[in-house]
Amino acid sequence: MNSVFTKTIFRFTLLLLLQVAVFKQFMPDWGHASYFHAMIYPAFIMNLPFRINKITVILLGFLFGILLDFFYSSPGVHASACVFTAFIRPTVLNITKPQSEYDILHSPTIAHYGFVWFATYSAIMLFVHLLFYFSVEAFTFVYIGQILLKTFASFIVSYLLIILFQFIINPK
Amino acid sequence: MRNLILLFVKYGNIFLFLFLEILCLSLVARYNTSQNEIFINSTNIFSGKIYGGVNNLRQYFHLSAVSDSLANENARLRKLLYNTDIKEVTRRDSLLTQDSTLQYSYITAKVINNSINLNNNKITLDKGSLAGIGKRMGVINANGIVGIVKEVNDNFAVVLSVLHRSMRISAAIKNKGYFGSMQWNGNDPTRMDLVDVSRHASIMKGDTIVTSGYSTKFPANITVGTIDSFWLTQGNDSYAIQVKLNNDISKLQYVYVIDNLLATEQKAIEEVTRDE
Fold it and tell me: For the residues of B63-108, what is the DSSP string, one character each?
């Protein structure tokens, strides 16, 4: 239990720092709107161990999101997207359940369930997260075209980053 | 009780999710100005049409009152036309008459949504930027001031009513020159407070309050109301005055949006000397 705890804290800090210190700066401008947002932090919610119960996952998501919001000075935007992602995590895990079932002692990572499984799982999670995030940021569905464009553009960048992150850190 | 606990164990995550999500969204709406304005604006897009329809119907019941007020105003304008104060028009030292530019132009608009019983009241108008209405323009009607334009889109405008707590209007006591800031305390829709009036002012109950013309939003000398009561504030350095509004905000129908054509010019020169 102790190692789960320290690993979670470690990834919490690492991803927060990576996001605000490195990837927040990466925003190429096309005209006056920037469509590509590099977002690596959803990996934190994706990789949380199975052992952590649903309620704690949601609380962790909220804490993580609200800390991000401090750095982005956008109270509530990241937090609401993180809470939503944390809330649907069990459902997504259920949909993508492999033949061998999940082992309660593991984390949902490439090392345990393979590349194809993780690619599917993280794609769904990331897409939902980004769509929710940009909808809250726009705060209305009047600009649905803009929202979708931003979601797809950011998805490409963020997806590559998250997969790359899995190979570099590889948290078992 | 046991069932209640079981319910929480089973659906706790959903309750927690909903609670946190509502918390987050309220944070978003409250602290991010852009989202706040988007919220006002998109409410506007959807509700504007509906308000327009409702108002069309409601107007039939007020037709006689409207024609009365229009007739009154016609009479007043006719009087102005025939009794024009010559001195006023050809005043030599006035910048405006020297190059004979017009400073204020007026845009007529219809009120399609209004409230007086909230803490922060807003008014929706049936015209927007296509008719030339812009943000931060003043709004008046025949009886006095109405508010200041907060948001516009193509066909609608939202006005912060004078009955809005964040409203500050520069006003003066007619013919005496002492000025202060008008605000609403949130209680009585027929009264506003005029604060920060110099304690040297000699004021009397019944004195007329007019706009000071110091801001770029309202021209000077538009009647606002009359003094109802006044008292020295704590510390005795200024008067606070309760003003009875001349205008009945609950019965607005047609209003004029004031387009100050020289506003940018005035703002620009004031901006230059801001740090002096």
Answer: HHHHHHHHHHHHHHHHHHHHT--HHHHT-TT-HHHHTT---EEEEE
